[in-house]
Amino acid sequence: MPDNKPSYKKKDKNLYEDGGRIAPRDSELEEVVLGALMLEKDAYSKVSDILKPDSFYEPAHSKVYEAVQTLGAIQRPIDMMTVTEQLRLNGTLDEVGGPAFIARLTGRVASAAHVEFHARILAQKYLARELISFSSAISAKAYDESNDIDDLLQEAEGRLFEISQNNVKKDVTQIDPVIKQAMQQIEVAANRASGLSGLESGFHAIDKLTSGWQPSDLIIIAARPAMGKTAFVLSMAKNMAVNYNIPVAVFSLEMSNLQLVNRMISNVCEIEGSKIKSGQLSPVEWEQLIARIKNLNGAPLFIDDTASLSVFELQTKARRLVREHGVKFIIIDYLQLMNASGMKFGSREQEVSIISRSLKGLAKDLNIPIVALSQLNRSVESRTDGKRPQLSDLRESGAIEQDADIVCFIHRPEYYLRSDTDANGNDIRGVAEFIVAKHRSGSVDDIKLRFTAKYARFENWEDNAVGSMTSSRASSRNSSDTDMNNYIPEAPSFGGGYVKLDPDDGPPPF
How many alpha carbons lie under 13 Å from residue 88 in its C-beta half-sphere? Predict the structure, then answer.
């Protein structure tokens, strides 16, 4: 090479070199690409989403591309003169070798016809250097016995995810195959008795509004504590896994798998949660437990109760569940308890933003709906308008609202009013409002559900309209007759009360 080219070395030579081997690079190809960018008018538009300054191994080439990138951003012409001037403005012209070096770059190019192909080669070599750097750093830390291996795994997952997110690009798709896919989806929905294109949640009004939970959607369900977020998603998981045989995975960061299953048993068997925990069941409740718990056996429901789960661990586990068990729906309880270990952030808000963006990316990659529960800010408590939640109440990050396809809130007026009726005299006992505040692909609405606190269960409003009266009658009967062996449970659709047996009928028919 001519003498006027300065000699450059990497700041940390060991960063890209391993055991004496030369890091992947092609300095001559870098020169060809830079020369083509200054000769061909539209060359930069072809490579702007492929290359970045770090894609160039030689520091001088990296600085030249920075100047090209600046000119492209302000829509100025890119040629030998404008790049030279921009380098002068950046204060790096002398560092790269002056105007003579820029002139030499343009002299290296016979044609700019293959600039995009050459740029992709440089991008691949840069990615190879990144992976070498990553693996060397992790290897060195693995030899250091003072490092905690679990923390190191988290860091490795985070860094690898960061590399893949920054470098993996998806090509554009011509519309024809997408139209074909859309038509197939419409035909499948038309052939379903429910008329839904997505997964049924078991809550009819919600399914009607959303057409079922749609593939690749990120659904955020948020509420203040004690509103019943976990009870709602467990009721939904039971509906989907037990009633519709849809494989569901629940990632619980707050409760153990035993606590979740106890709640599920209370939900399905219609036995108060306190009795499930204490084991103080009457003989008829034992019979009811044994008879109805069979509905849960064999259900395609998978529970992971790993505490302080990182978003990268979740991605690994979710892909395995989809691959090995055909899971079609994922529930995360709840988003603010997740972390993005291995990555550095200026604030918790930035970390939550990465988590929500990663969950949306995971939903797209797996092509399944993902539901993530979220907390709300305390500002809800200070309002005097009925304390109904709104989008601005989402805790820690506006990115949650931005990334989600659907944002829903759960609100129970009974909890805040501490009364059986509202200001208009309406009975609000057991009333729960499912508020769809954002719906990227449809309308928003408020949906009325029924919440049965003693079973931690949400139900369709219309399903239990008669059940509440039946339960009241059953409670009256139960309190007047202490021998519970003389009663059998009513059908679940009628509220789960008890009907007195004729002594001549024999034992309860379980």
Answer: 9
- Tens digits of per-residue pLDDT, 138-180? 888 888 888 888 778 877 877 777 777 666 555 666 777 778 8
- Give the active site residues: 254
End-to-end CA distance of the chain: 91
Calpha distance 403→53 (Å, rounded): 29
CA distances from 42 to 72, 80, 118, 270, 276 (A): 10, 15, 15, 69, 70
Measure the CA angle with vertex 72, ends 69 and 78; round to 5°.
Answer: 95
Cβ(199)–Cβ(352) under 8 Å?
Answer: no
Instruction: Using alpha carbons, list the distances in angstroms from residue 272 to 160, 289, 300.
Output: 46, 11, 24
pTM of the model: 0.64
DSSP percent split of the chain into helix, strand, coil, nearest 5: 50, 15, 35
CA angle 224, 226, 228 (to 5 degrees): 90
Other C-beta atoms lying within 10 Å of the C-beta of residue 264:
25
Give the list of residues 6+ apart from residue 328 with CB closer than 8 angstroms, or none: 199, 246, 247, 248, 368
In the predicted structure, residue 279 carries a pLDDT above the cut 50: yes
Helices (H), 293-393: 311-325, 348-366, 379-382
CA distances from 423 to 339, 385, 419, 428 (A): 42, 12, 10, 10
Alpha-carbon distance of 440 to 434, in angstroms, equals 17
* Mean pLDDT for all residues in the chain: 78
Q: What is the mean pLDDT of residues 337-360?
A: 75
How far apart are the C-alpha atoms of 132 and 138, rounded to whole Å? 10
Structure tokens given for 228 = 């019943």
Angle subtended by helix axes 115-143 and 149-167, to nearest 10: 180
